[in-house]
Amino acid sequence: MGKEKPEKATGGKTKGGGKAKKKWSKAKVKEKLNNNVLFDKATYDKLLKEVPTMKLVTPAVLSDRFRINGSLARLAIKELVNKGYIRAITHHSKITIYTRTGLGASAEKEDKKGAQGKKGGKNKKDKDEDAAAEEEEEEGETKGKKGKKGKE
């Protein structure tokens, strides 16, 4: 009846431009944190030792550093404020930011630094005053010696 058209060799490809369908990549799944809901003795001692030396204290920082959950971090901050180790800098409806007060472990370190200071413990003004005082003492001693020798 009618003529049949011979099929072209396409190699199994379908018609329509030859573009493959885009495949969506799988989303990366964040690991679930296994934070503590209660303090153990070691974590509590570490908290009392390190937090008074930290410049920035927030529940997020405590939760990340000590592997505790957020509600436990908020309770720890309340306790540290009551003990006087940290103080509030700013208060917002969502978060309060705290910093060290200088009491506790950090106060002892700062007292030692204050007594010794940097490289010798005295600033330039204090060194100049001490040097002048020593010179006056030496001059007084040398005058006294000369006077004694002259009298003898």
Describe the structure.
This protein has five helices and two strands. The N and C termini lie far apart (155 Å). The protein has helices at 41-50, 59-66, 70-83, 105-116, 124-151, and strands spanning 86-91, 96-100. By secondary structure, it is mainly α.
Shape: rod-shaped
Radius of gyration: 38 Å
Structural class comes to mainly alpha
Q: Strand tally, please?
A: 2
Euclidean distance between termini CA atoms: 155 Å
Percent strand equals 5-15%
Question: How are strands sequenced across the largest beta sheet?
Answer: 1-2
Number of helices: 5
From the structure above, extract its key features.
mainly alpha, 7% strand, 152 residues, two-stranded antiparallel ribbon, 5 helices
Blueprint (SSEs and pairs):
Elements: H1 41-50, H2 59-66, H3 70-83, E1 86-91, E2 96-100, H4 105-116, H5 124-151
Antiparallel strand pairs: 1-2
Question: What does this entry show, briefly?
Answer:
The protein has 152 residues and is mainly alpha-helical. The mean pLDDT is 75.
